[in-house]
Design a protein that fits this description.
The complex is a heterodimer.
Chain A: E1 4-5, H1 24-34, H2 46-61, H3 67-94, H4 107-120, H5 134-137, H6 139-149, H7 162-170, H8 178-184, H9 197-207, H10 214-224, H11 228-239, H12 250-261, H13 264-268, H14 271-301, H15 308-311, H16 314-336, H17 340-357, H18 362-377, E2 391-394, E3 398-401, H19 425-434
Antiparallel strand pairs in A: 2-3
Chain B: E1 19-27, H1 32-44, H2 53-65, E2 68-74, E3 88-93, E4 102-109, E5 119-127, H3 133-138, E6 142-149, H4 156-169, H5 176-191, E7 203-205, H6 210-221, E8 228-232, H7 242-252, E9 258-263, E10 265-267, E11 274-276, H8 280-289, E12 293-298, H9 319-327, H10 329-335, E13 345-350, E14 353-359, H11 365-368, E15 379-384, H12 389-395, E16 403-405, E17 428-434, E18 437-442, E19 451-455, E20 465-470, E21 480-484, E22 490-491, E23 511-516, E24 519-524, E25 526-527, H13 544-553, H14 586-607, H15 611-619, H16 624-633, H17 648-667, H18 672-675, H19 678-695, H20 702-712
Parallel strand pairs in B: 1-2, 2-3, 8-9, 9-12, 17-25
Antiparallel strand pairs in B: 1-4, 4-5, 5-6, 7-15, 8-13, 10-11, 12-16, 13-14, 14-15, 17-18, 18-21, 19-20, 19-23, 20-22, 23-24
Helix pairs in contact in B: 4-5, 7-8, 13-14, 14-15, 14-17, 16-17, 16-19, 17-19, 17-20
Classes of the chains: A mainly alpha, B alpha+beta.
Chain lengths: 441, 716
């Protein structure tokens, strides 16, 4: 091939360099206590039906291997089905069905292929690339946790549970011959499946992301609330009717917590305490993160100035006060928290917090933040892979951010309102809404 | 493959069902964090996001078990070894500067359903990009990739040259994995049909051959001198004779009347101008010595024509991206883009066509072999017709307007700065781990104060270091050392001895720390017997019950945990009305084992298209061999939690059945090379069976002998 100049590609995987102060572990544990089995990128619940239908088709169309090979086989068999379905969703969107392909993984690939098919009036097939690596970022990679959490598939084997089988039955079958259905179940011959364009469009009418029937919606809602924790949160959300935000912050979480307090089961599960834990840990993390961002910015702008100049800065002193205040609140919460699971979930930040809590000056705060960041990056706190420090401190006097993390603009101060992590509430609300389990405002 | 300008895409499988089998890459710099978390995670299709550390690492290690990955890098090009997987062979080179960027990839696709041998596809990627995040995501880099398989005609001579260049680099390296990989590439290349195409390079050249080959190719295009010479390079010849080298280069390339030097761009000190990074005095002298015009060009900070990758591929993002967005990290990156120049190209142009070089050679004496010892370099040379002019122009889309250098005025430039090279332990030849034994080879004069430490792998915190070697400051250390970790002293960072606490890890770390003459640097450890490694460096090996559950249900052992909670019945046994707890009943345990056998066979069958996955499945941490070893050991160790005490007959039965599985699976494979993978495993299982029979008279009964004969046929 002819040589090329590489594209600027700053996005995509961020190399795990997203957690300079080691708060992700706490976030993950708290998010699992609040909404287990949901991730931040599971946004369209009909994926669950489609995957169940694909697995059912695979189990019908070929002999499934025992043990770990069966799991791999089932997951792989979903991919051709997903590609054909993605085309059908795009076809439905093209026919004017609102939301038919919103949130479709790999929509740009499916649209390209669909446009080509339509222009040439050719039959559809699943022989086209969907995503750069479909098994990684497609339906399986993205929705598997939700399928397991929704009790639709068995975690180890990937076989359908009875609920999964029922959901599969409700999903409209692709308009292909019995022979092609069998081919669709086998990735090695699935490219031979051929669907007349009109049949694809007709299938799209009923299988697109927005087209679930009432019975299917009922079942999807049940899957979404299959865990007691998710069920309680969905009930509390219903009580918040009219006050559910598009983007959540700590104030909205407090409101949700107040509703959860009124639900006996939620209290038994400790959900109000989980909300409190999220609020105090987020406020603490936001404060120390703001201080850390100031170090990145200040180090970029003042490459040769001693840090003593920073310590006397009035804005930085107020940042110091905020860090200490939020650390104290975090510590008070943990001291008074009776639930072991919540205490354990917040353990990851507790040591750091106790160090910030006893800082007597801005200088001590910077020392603690820099030392903590270094420990996080070296992988010493959680057994992770060592990574480069974002910023180093020469002689504890000059701050040097690494080029990738230099900042040209001062960061916004911490307010205690915004969340530094997505707690999966937005996608959960969206999925409940699309199934009528939560009324849109 | 689908055309893409996103470099990472060239490391993804070429089509449905292809799995990465082998990757050899040469590079000057390497960022192992990027390599593992982005490049290999993409290439192996790891589903778990990086932030889920345990799941991510388990999945990555499982992927790496089934692929051979060797990275040859310059010892000066990696400040810090942040690699955690012992399954990647990191091979440092220090004798001659390794600067070439060659990637050789091989994928295989199982075709056993149709009874055909597996499809194989190879890809050769050559260019200027190091294996770093900047190289793949940020810099201006110039790269070309060529695919090779049995269905198409490709210039296989280029592939063979690339294999030869890698062989040259590793000539003094004794890595069995790398040798095996190169042999596999050569064997596959030998099968392919040689051919060429209009947009394919005509040669792959090393540093010394760049200029002669460019000149020779030009003479096949035209009998006139080229009209222009354009050289793109971030680094240029330095020192008092720098101009001599550039003049010599221009003359050797036909002394074209117009010479353009494309340099990195930087803002002037007052921030008002965008200037080329080039020594002004050298430019002036060069202009005086060249007969024609000389121009300097600075690369643009961000060329709109080069675009941003990914805007067309919505849906490829993982959960990590969401976190990054929330923290504002990605947003921040978009604000102030300054793409650094790292591409290296030489273009000879004239009315009759063009000759183009793209590769790793900077315009330096060592990069182009201009009167100095040449680096290891690699680049493609193209012979182009005037019809390709538009494509050639697109390669230079990042170049700013030319500034003519006049003979009587020094041009406005930014003075280049020199980076100091850090001290590296070039006296280390190799460090190889085999079980708990570390072999250290030295090559040149070894510093007399040398200290070699190996940090003990831990899940968190520090457990101290194994003190592998400590020079006494007087005697010269030996040329080869062999250290047994279990006999090795443990010390802290200050080399003070420390007491052991808890159970001691016996898995070596992936690097050693060398201290000498006030310097400190890391050096990688190579693991030649990877199948013996636990899945995770800081993890444990699965128990027998976990292995049975794995083959029975597909339940993956929790290597990070303590192994105390597994199996189907997780409740604590209790008395009273509750059902009988069957976990401690041998018959139930053996029944689970029997039911797991089809799972073992299915696993082997699924991997029986290629050596690496088959070896991993047969001998890795979740394999029939591991199960046999656990069963064999169960007679001499206390039963694990949730497991019954075993009898010799039960274990004898298990070993016979495992041998039978191996025998059946082997018989189903046609390829001799793959059948060979079974031999050491079968031999070890039979050895255990024999030892068991010798130790336990109850297995010498006629009944057991007949059973064994019936299952395994005539044995011994």
């Amino acid at each position: 091939m002819f040589p090329f100049v590489t594209a600027y590609d700053p996005l995509g995987g961020s190399a795990g360099s997203i957690d300079p102060l080691g708060a992700l572990q706490t976030y993950g544990l708290l998010a699992d206590l609040l909404l287990p089995g949901v991730t931040t990128i599971t946004t369209r619940s009909r994926y669950l039906s489609m995957v169940c239908a694909a697995i059912a088709n695979a189990e019908k169309g070929q002999q499934v291997l025992p043990g770990p090979s069966g799991l791999a086989q089932r997951r792989k068999a979903i991919e051709p089905f997903e590609r054909l379905w993605a085309l059908a969703c795009v076809a439905a969107g093209d026919a004017g069905h609102e939301g038919a392909s919103d949130g479709l993984r790999g929509i740009s690939y499916a649209e390209r292929t669909y446009r080509d098919l339509r222009a040439k009036n050719r039959p559809a097939s699943c022989d086209f690339p969907l995503l750069k690596y479909q098994s990684r970022t497609g339906a399986v990679g993205t929705y598997w946790t939700a399928l397991v959490g929704g009790q639709l598939v068995e975690r180890d084997s990937g076989s359908l549970s009875s609920e999964g089988q029922e959901l599969a039955k409700r999903f409209p079958e692709p308009r292909v011959t019995a022979r092609d259905k069998g081919r669709l179940a086998d990735p090695s011959i699935a490219h031979r499946v051929s669907v007349p364009f009109d049949d694809l469009v007709m299938w799209g009418e009923e299988c697109h992301l927005q087209a679930a029937t009432d019975e299917e919606k009922q079942q999807l809602g049940e899957a979404l609330t299959a865990s007691d924790r998710r069920d309680c949160v969905s009930r509390a959300l219903r009580m918040m009717k009219g006050a559910i935000p598009d983007e959540w912050n700590t104030e909205h979480l407090v409101t949700l917590g107040k509703k959860l307090v009124t639900l006996r089961q939620a209290v038994e599960l400790g959900l109000p305490l989980v909300i409190d834990a999220i609020v105090v840990s987020e406020q603490f993390h936001e404060a120390v993160l703001a201080a850390f961002e100031i170090l990145l910015w200040w180090g970029t702008q003042n490459a040769s100035k001693p840090t003593a100049d920073l310590f006397v800065d009035a804005d930085f002193r107020s940042t110091f006060d905020r860090c200490r205040a939020t650390a104290q609140r975090f510590r008070d919460f943990r001291d008074g928290c009776a639930r072991r699971d919540v205490r354990e979930a917040t353990q990851g930040l507790a040591t750091f917090c106790s160090r910030i809590d006893v800082c007597q000056s801005a200088r001590e705060l910077v020392i603690e933040i820099m030392d903590h960041h270094h420990r996080v990056q070296s992988g010493k706190l959680d057994g992770g892979v060592p990574k480069r420090d974002w910023i180093t401190w020469h002689g504890r006097n000059i701050l040097r951010p690494s080029p990738r993390f230099q900042r040209n603009n001062p960061p916004s101060p911490a307010t205690g309102i915004s969340l530094t992590h997505p707690y999966r509430l937005e996608p959960f609300v969206q999925m409940l809404r699309e199934n009528g389990w939560l009324v849109s405002d | 493959m689908e055309k893409s300008r996103r470099l990472l895409d060239y490391y993804l499988p070429p089509g449905e069902g292809f799995v990465l089998e082998s990757l050899i890459a040469t590079t000057y710099q390497v960022d192992f964090e990027f390599l593992e978390e982005e490049l290999l995670a993409s290439a192996l299709g790891v589903r778990s996001p990086v932030n889920r550390i345990k799941a991510f690492r388990s999945e990555l290690e499982r992927g790496l078990q089934k692929a051979d990955v060797s990275i040859l890098y310059d010892l000066r090009g990696c400040e810090r070894l942040v690699r955690l997987s012992p399954r990647i062979d990191a091979i440092p080179v220090s004798r001659r500067k390794l600067h070439s960027k060659i990637s050789l990839l091989m994928w295989a696709r199982d075709n056993s359903k149709s009874g055909a041998p597996p499809d194989r596809c190879m890809r050769l990627v050559v260019g200027s990009a190091n294996l770093t995040r900047q190289g793949f995501r940020q810099n201006y880099e110039c790269v070309a990739a060529i695919d090779f398989d049995r269905k198409r005609v490709s210039p296989t001579s280029l592939l063979k040259t690339a294999i030869g260049l890698v062989r040259q680099i590793c000539a003094d390296r004794d890595s069995p994995q790398l040798q095996r990989q190169l042999a596999a590439f050569s064997a596959e290349a030998d099968i392919l049909e040689e051919g060429t195409g209009p947009e394919l390079p005509v040669a792959l050249v090393a540093a010394d051959d760049v200029v002669p080959t460019l000149r020779n190719v030009w003479t096949t295009i035209s009998d006139k001198a080229p009209e222009s010479l354009t050289i793109v390079s971030p680094f240029w010849a330095e020192g008092v004779t720098a101009t001599d080298a550039l003049v010599q280069l221009a003359q050797q390339l036909g002394a074209p009347p117009r010479v353009e030097l494309v340099c990195s761009g930087e803002r002037s000190a007052d921030g008002k101008l965008w200037l080329p990074v080039f020594e002004a005095a050298a430019a002036l002298e060069l202009r005086r010595r060249l007969s024609g015009q000389l121009f300097l060009c600075a690369t643009l900070p961000e060329a709109a024509a080069m675009g941003v990758a990914g805007t067309d591929d919505i849906g490829d993002e993982l959960e990590d991206r969401e976190f990054a967005t929330r923290l504002g990290i990605e947003k921040n990156k978009e604000v102030d883009t300054h793409r650094a120049l790292h591409a290296k190209t030489i273009l000879l142009d004239g009315r009759d066509g063009s000759t183009l070089y793209i590769g790793s050679s900077n315009c330096t004496r060592r990069g182009l072999g201009l009167g100095a010892a040449a680096n290891h370099e690699a680049g493609f040379i193209y012979q182009l017709t005037p019809r390709h002019r538009k494509q050639v122009a697109s390669l230079l889309g990042f170049v700013g307007p030319p500034i003519e250098v006049l003979p009587d005025a020094a041009p406005s430039t930014v003075q280049p700065t020199r980076e100091e090279e850090c001290a590296v332990p070039s006296f280390l030849e190799e460090v190889v781990a085999s079980g708990g034994i570390i072999s250290i080879g030295f090559r040149e004069t070894v510093p007399r104060d040398l200290v070699l430490l190996m940090p003990i792998p831990t899940k968190a915190g520090s457990a101290g270091n194994w003190l592998l070697f400590r020079g006494n400051g007087e005697n010269e250390p030996p040329q080869h050392l062999e250290v047994h970790l279990d006999l090795c002293g443990i010390c802290d960072e200050r080399l003070e001895p420390i007491a052991e606490f808890g159970s001691r890890s016996d898995t070596p770390n992936v690097y050693v720390e060398a201290r000498w003459e006030g310097h400190t640097a890391n050096f990688p450890v190579r693991f030649d017997e990877k199948t013996q490694l636990p899945l995770l460096l800081v993890g444990r090996k699965p128990s027998e019950g976990e292995l049975i559950d794995y083959f029975l249900f597909g339940r993956e052992p929790n290597e990070w945990g303590d192994g105390l909670s597994f199996t189907g019945n997780e409740s604590t046994p209790s008395s009273g009305d509750e059902p009988v707890d069957t976990r401690y009943i041998l018959t139930y345990f053996i029944r689970r084992f029997v039911r797991a056998i089809p799972g073992i066979e299915a696993e082997i069958k699924r991997a029986a298209y290629s050596r690496a996955p088959l070896t991993a499945v047969l001998r890795g941490p979740t394999s029939p061999l591991e199960l046999a070893e656990r069963a064999f050991a169960s007679l001499t160790t206390a039963p694990a939690k949730d497991e019954p005490s075993k009898t010799p007959t039960a274990v004898g039965f298990q070993l016979v059945e495992i041998c039978a599985v191996l025998q059946r699976s082997r018989a189903e494979i046609a390829e001799i090379e793959l059948r060979v993978c079974f031999d050491p495993v079968t031999a070890r299982c039979r050895e255990m069976l024999r030892a068991l029979e010798e130790r336990h008279p109850e297995l010498g009964t006629e009944a057991f002998r007949r059973y064994k004969e019936q299952i395994l046929g005539c044995v011994e």
